[in-house]
Specification:
Layout (H helix, E strand, L loop, with lengths): L3 E8 L5 H14 L5 E8 L5 E4 L3 H5 L10 E5 L7 E6 L2 E6 L2 E5 L9 H9 L8 H8 L1 H10 L7 E5 L6 H12 L3 E5 L9 E3 L2 H12 L4 E6 L3 E10 L4 E2 L3 E3 L19 E2 L6 H17 L4 E10 L4 E7 L9 H7 L5 H19 L1
Parallel strand pairs: 1-2, 1-7
Antiparallel strand pairs: 2-3, 3-4, 4-5, 5-6, 8-11, 9-10, 9-11, 12-13, 12-14, 12-16, 14-15, 16-17
């Protein structure tokens, strides 16, 4: 039987470039070769697309784009091609693709842009579509959709670019509502870039300006002293929910531009919570997953407050896929090793494609 041609897209122009490389290198090593033929497409930090025929080790150490066998390539939006077009010495050729695993985080990757291109191409892909990726990336949309579905989140306010002329007034109004113990963040940011924890009005104004340097909308949340819980959700119609984990850490901000970053280092599974709280956390995770229109997989971050209330923090539609990252470690608890997990993600994407294309 012919092998399934699986394309892995990695890199990208976002700050999460290095995190993408680290995840992609491990994923490529763990794709079952008896079932899949792997095609690698890398995107440089400057946005150049390259067909990469080299090794996962070159991806892991960041030297992949220096490989002299790389050639220009791009996903064709024409469903007639249903693949990538490579350009070498002025000549083009088409490589057919059966399924895509886009390991791209942050802007111009995890925000629905790549997913839109893949929808045009007619090629099945792992993960959520345009609307879900965009809504999860834009935290103002996440908050509004959660409000509509009665899922509690930290109290929040939105500041738009049009309100910059009255920024002092707007910040004063928010401080009167929430106090000055706040979290300020860009509305659209795949990582923690531009996020600030503030304690006073002067710090609040500075934090808003920093956040605006990263996006044209700013989210202000009332700071919540809480434990940080994690749930992995996988599937399309019949969802699978992992045991609940807990991040045992301070309010540190990790740097996704670091090759060695692993957000699962401080993860404890299962979380030391009551069965009732664990059940409720899973219910919130799956309800939020469905409300946002997510598909395939997501990492759901929750807060457990000191008085026992569960709040949704955010949903990551493209979680890190290193074996030491939070999502794979949670799925391990259900008996899925790294190879099984990647195989299942690809298999489900192909099976789900019939209803979309």
């Amino acid at each position: 039987m012919a092998k399934i041609k699986a394309a892995v897209i990695f890199g990208g122009t976002a700050r999460e470039h290095a995190l993408s490389l680290a995840s992609a290198a491990e994923v490529i090593k763990n794709i079952p070769r008896d079932t899949y033929e792997v095609i690698c497409i890398g995107i440089t930090r400057k946005g150049r697309w390259l067909f990469f025929p080299g090794s996962p080790e070159e991806i892991a150490d960041g030297t992949w784009e220096q490989n002299t066998d790389c050639t220009s390539a791009f996903i064709s939006p024409d469903p007639l091609h249903r693949g990538i077009i490579t350009i070498e010495n002025g000549e083009t050729s088409v490589k057919r693709i059966d399924v895509v695993l886009p390991i791209l985080m942050g802007k111009k990757g995890g925000d629905g842009t790549i997913q839109g291109l893949l929808d045009l191409s007619g090629i099945p892909y792992v993960g959520s579509g345009v609307l879900a990726c965009g809504s999860c990336m834009d935290k103002s949309h996440t908050h509004m959709i959660m409000d509509d579905h009665n899922i509690k989140t930290p109290e929040w306010a939105l500041i738009t670019q049009r309100e910059l002329g009255e920024l002092d007034k707007k910040c004063t109004e928010i401080a009167d509502r929430f106090g000055c113990d706040l979290v300020v963040k860009p509305a659209k940011s795949g990582s923690n870039q531009g996020i600030s924890f503030v304690k006073d009005m002067e710090g609040f104004l500075t934090a808003v300006k920093v956040a605006f340097s990263n996006d044209n909308k700013v989210i202000v949340e009332k700071y919540v002293h809480a434990r940080k819980l994690e749930v992995a959700v996988i599937g399309y119609d019949n969802l699978i929910c992992s045991p609940v984990g807990e991040i045992i850490a301070s309010d540190k901000i990790y740097d996704p531009s670091d090759f060695n970053v692993s957000s699962g280092d401080d993860l404890t599974i299962p979380a030391n919570i009551t069965p009732e709280t664990a059940k409720k956390a899973k219910e919130i995770a799956t309800t939020a997953f469905k409300a946002l229109g997510c598909k395939g997989m997501a990492r759901v971050d929750l807060f457990l407050t000191d008085d026992g209330e569960l709040l949704l923090n955010k949903i990551g539609t493209m979680p890190g896929l290193k074996s030491t990252s939070v999502f794979p470690k949670l799925m391990e608890q259900l008996g899925y090793d790294h190879e099984d997990l990647i195989d299942m993600l690809l298999e489900q994407a192909v099976e789900n494609s019939d209803r979309n294309y």
